[in-house]
Amino acid sequence: xxxxTDAWTRTAGVRTAIDELPFVQGLADGTLDRERFTYxxxxxxxxxxxxxxxxxxxxxxxxxxxxxxxxxxxxxxxxVVERExxxxxxxxxxxxxxxxxxxxxxxxxxxxxxxxxxAVAAAGVLPCFWIYQDVGDHLLRQAGALDGHAYGDWIGxxxxxxxxxxxxxxxAIVDRCAEGADDSTVQRMHEAYSTAARYExxxxxxxxxxxTWPV
Length: 215
Ligand SMILES: Cc1ncc(CN)c(N)n1
Prior knowledge:
By secondary structure, the chain is mainly α. It has a single domain, classed as Heme Oxygenase, Chain A (Up-down Bundle), CATH 1.20.910. It contains ten helices and no strands. The longest helix has 28 residues. It is globular and about 45 Å long.
């Protein structure tokens, strides 16, 4: 069994929990209130700025030139394309501060790039690709046509064929890393993958609660 098939199976419960989140259900049928969506988009813009740095770090650690290019292009897409979407929804991004969950997730991913294992860091960024594609596909199926849908541009971005191709490439890189890795590295890759998958759940939950710092 490939690493990614195994990781997907091990985290099935997290994916079901994501699909059941009120935030995700509200995205699907368009009933999510604008305040929660705007909160989410502002946090996500902050997340993506840090995530772009994580992908750039992966590019710098890749020894294969094609993998280096893939991470570098993904960093560019994250900063340019996805942020365009955020700019269309959030008027004042400069006013936003990272929530506890946003800071915890990005700090965790950044920490993976400093622990000396390209394979573990690559596994840690994979849920950001794969879970969004999975959610985008589910939402597209549930929503049907996106014309006139309140969150159609968001759903369209993550159910898009180009995004799906990038997910396949990221999975292939992670599987290649796992094939050559020892048992303890594969174990750490699973830990990184499942932790990031849980953070994806937490990120949407935090947006639903419009999480703030306690003091
Ligand atoms: C929190 C989060 N995770 C993943 C994605 C998709 N790149 C995103 N925009 N935001």
